[in-house]
Design brief:
Blueprint (H helix, E strand, L loop, with lengths): L10 H7 L59 H4 L19 E5 L10 H5 L5 E5 L3 E4 L4 E2 L4 E4 L5 E4 L3 E3 L4 E6 L2 E3 L10 E3 L4 E6 L2 E3 L6 E3 L4 E6 L2 E3 L6 E2 L12 E5 L2 E3 L7 E3 L2 E5 L2 E3 L6 E4 L3 E5 L2 E3 L5 E4 L10 E5 L2 E3 L3 E2 L21 H10 L4
Parallel strand pairs: 1-2, 2-5, 3-6, 4-7, 5-8, 6-9, 7-10, 8-11, 9-12, 10-13, 11-14, 12-15, 14-17, 15-18, 16-19, 17-20, 18-21, 19-22, 20-23, 21-24, 22-25, 23-26, 24-27, 25-28
Helix pairs in contact: 1-4
Length: about 375
């Protein structure tokens, strides 16, 4: 399957280099306090529509020239092959493929040639990095629409603050970046997707040690895929649905596949109201209730590897003080060390929204995720 690597790198070797540029992304410690794809999809408002794309499509929905850049540097075909790996609810994200290439030439927080200067523009851009190193942000980056942040071929660590995909923003790809929060800010996520933002793909990122979440998807944001990411050195990792009062979050749809929660606290993920397809992930030695769904949210947990330590609840249908139970279905999950799941149906069927070919949850999958997740 195209989403899988051609070979499994030994686990010991992966532990030496799996975090890529994120030299501060430590495995295990908390802070002190593929699929063959045939998109069939539906729109963020819930109406059914086909995107008409083949598995290696490079166009955003609606078609048109994949390389229309007339006045700058067109996105090369070799870069566009990244889009062949799209899967799930965020599979229509093509980022800046219909724009020009923007080169990050400085590690400065702002100014000409900076990541912020390109990322916050309004026109479509495929952003690449001509430099490697640390970008120390003094505030969050407010990402513009139709953007690809393509960290492949560089070693980029974004420090202190993160990236917000906010109101009215859609069609975003974030690829192969390391985020280290250093516990800055009171409401500071590595990647925040909120306020109706939609059609977002986050892939092969390493994320750790933010004050709030690592990837939070809230306030009616929808059609998001998070894949092949490494989460470590963090407590509450992925929140989907902000609070019991946010009833608009019922439209949230998220696919989470081939990620590694490495000895984190919880939220793998934590869902309210919406739908989450949690597919072929490694959730390893969590601290309390790995995955949980409340407020009628639906988790379809499929082919995941759950490695319990002290807490045994791999999948729960209640959490915190939320007054309404969630729903959950476990299909082919590998429950190690006495891990248990709570199930309550009905739960949505992912195949009603897109096609995929999931792998079995077995030692080979576990080793592959340990070798391949995160920025490289």
């Amino acid at each position: 399957m195209s989403v899988f690597r051609d070979a499994i790198v030994p686990v010991v070797f992966s532990l030496l280099w799996g975090c890529g540029a994120g030299k501060d992304v430590l495995l295990g410690d908390l802070p002190s306090h593929d699929a063959a794809l045939q998109p069939e999809g539906s729109a963020p408002d819930g109406s059914t529509e086909s995107d008409g794309a083949s598995p290696d499509a490079t166009l955003v929905e609606g078609g048109g020239d994949a390389n229309p850049c007339a006045t700058g540097e067109a996105v090369p075909a070799t870069a566009l092959t990244l889009l062949s790996q799209r899967l799930g609810f965020g599979r229509l994200a093509s980022g800046g493929s219909r724009g020009c290439v923007y080169h990050v030439t400085t590690l400065a927080d702002a100014g000409a040639g900076s990541l912020r200067e390109g990322a916050e523009r309004t026109e479509p851009l495929w952003i690449v990095f001509d430099v490697s190193g640390d970008i120390e942000l003094s505030s969050k980056i407010l990402l513009g629409p139709n953007k690809t942040l393509d960290g492949r071929g560089a070693a980029i660590t974004i420090r202190n603050f993160g990236i917000t995909v906010g109101a009215g923003i859609s069609n975003v790809v974030i690829e192969n970046l390391t985020f280290v929060g250093n516990m800055q800010g009171s409401d500071n996520d590595a990647i925040q997707i909120a306020d109706g933002a939609h059609t977002v793909w986050v892939d092969h990122c390493s994320l750790s040690n933010y004050r709030d979440g690592l990837v939070d998807i809230t306030h009616a944001a929808t059609d998001v895929t998070v894949s092949w990411c490494l989460f470590s050195m963090h407590d509450l990792v992925m929140l989907i649905g902000r609070s019991p009062s946010d009833v608009d979050d019922a439209n949230i749809r998220v696919t989470v596949h081939h990620n590694w929660w490495n000895q984190t606290g919880s939220y793998a993920p934590r869902l309210r109201f919406g739908k989450a397809h949690v597919l072929n992930n490694l959730i390893d030695q969590w601290r309390s209730a790995a995955s949980a769904s409340t407020m009628g949210g639906e988790i379809y947990s499929e082919g995941n590897v759950f490695v319990a330590k002290d807490d045994k609840v791999a999948l729960a249908t209640s959490a915190g003080t939320d007054s309404v139970l969630g729903r959950a279905k476990s299909i082919g999950d590998w429950l190690q060390n006495g891990a248990i799941v709570q199930q309550s149906e009905p739960v949505f069927e992912p195949t009603a929204h897109y096609s995929y070919m999931p792998a079995r949850a077995d030692p080979a999958l576990q080793a592959e995720i340990m070798a391949g997740a995160g920025a490289h």
